[in-house]
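Methods — Computational structure assignment.
A single polypeptide chain was analysed. Its primary sequence is given first, followed by the predicted tertiary structure written as structure tokens.
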Amino acid sequence: MNHTITRRASLLGATLLLAACAGMPGASSWTSLIDGPKGLENFEQLGDANWRAEGDAIVADKGKGSSFLVSKKSYKDFELRAEFWADHSTNSGIFIRASDPKVVTASNSYEVNIYDQRPDPLYGTGAIVDFAKVSPMPKAGGKWNTFVVTARGTSVVVIFNGVQTVHMNDSKFASGPVALQFANGPQNAPGGVIKWRKVQIMEL
């Protein structure tokens, strides 16, 4: 028997099997919500922030109070990867499993925070506001950063620039859209710019 042919046949069979599995219902794959300047059409906008495509990202730097890009689709269990640039004064975050897509707050969703200057740093950058504290708080200002957020059942894990900041178990919010925030600072001080360069999600 020709072993080279046998190995090639085995490799071909494995490749076809993988391709078939990828096409099966329920197979997971990454979905891009933001890819450079593209992706605003994947969201509903709440608030008056000046979300726009600029350079290689989706950007906001002006608005009153809190404004959001709210995904048109809801998610239950997923892994989310986001690349973002924040100023030192930026008040932003990724809200997951939002229970009301018309009114997004830290009390009706899990807020993975981006806020280096938060008065209480225990719930600053890398924390889940009011649910999971971070210590010491990492800083996001002045550079590109990456969040990886994995929500599976009651477990939520946040990794910031390759380092796990929190891992919590909580059952308050089971599913809902993802929302990207632009907000002003304390006493309505102007918020710093937020840029989203890539946001991808894979359902688990």
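Note: Confidence is low (pLDDT under 50) at residues 3-26.
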